[in-house]
Amino acid sequence: MAVRALATTRAAAPRGSALEPLARDIGRTLDRLAAHLPSVGRPAPVAHTAARQLNLSAAILALSVLADSGVEHYRGSFQNRAMYAPLAAAALTLGASLFGVFDPRPRRHHLRDAIYAVAAAAGFAGLGFHAYNIAKRPGGLSWQNLFYAAPAGAPIALALGGLLGRGAEKVRDHPRSRARILGWPAGRLLAALSALGLAGTVGEAGLLHFRGAYHNPAMLLPVSVPPIAAALLGASIPAPRRRLAPLARGWLKLTALLGIGGVGLHAYGVSRNMGGWRNWSQNLLNGPPLPAPPSFTGLALAGLAALALMDEEHHG
Length: 316
Prior knowledge:
This protein is mainly alpha-helical. It has helices at residues 2-8, 20-35, 46-75, 85-101, 110-135, 143-148, 153-172, 186-211, 225-236, 244-271, 280-286, 294-315; strands at residues 180-181, 184-185. It has two domains: 1-42, no CATH class; 43-315. The protein is 69% helix and 1% strand.
């Protein structure tokens, strides 16, 4: 970049002239500006790239929660004022995550980190509210209530977005060294979190697709592909350089594509309801949820970032 080139060539002025202090000030200013610009011709550190990918993962999860909770809580008429909380937390997380994706600075942003902490807390609190919603219904913990009561998946996705975002900020703060979270190598802990998140998302998809009687063979995909990706990712944690890691990458990429394709399949499911998309105001509430499948994409991207970090930790 021109600014970087100027920064490397100090502004020259005759010694002893009145312009010499001004030239030094300009040189320092250009140096500070160049320090915030990405390096030209050199790849970014693996940890920095992985951190931004984790920010993207948190953004996808936040967008999924924002859209899904908005629809579901609107259907519930926002009877409880607390039903606005996940929308605010998800919106803040989405904005902070997008900022992180495009932030080239290799250090933690304290406001982003605080927003992620709030999102994680809101997600765990929401899980408690949803569990209470199920328990207070007649029959308690029954299939009927699991099918139609407040879903556990949405608040867990918000909590995962917050935790992965906090992991991104921790990794970003150690661009050229081994980041550790709770005493564990960041790559391995984030891989375990991503694998558990995929397993939980598979559980919710399996439950709701079972409610739909698996009437379309494509409904088997989210309960067949992501479990393999989660198992391979988990098995790669003890030995990231063995044969399982390349297999895990392939299945995680397939899972990420499945999350994108799932939106199209759910849109097709909405169109098959009475009135199709012409009756969108009703069918979006009662048809397959469009925001649900991208959770697979977000968690798969987090798993890929964790594998990259584990490779870096192994080389180190």
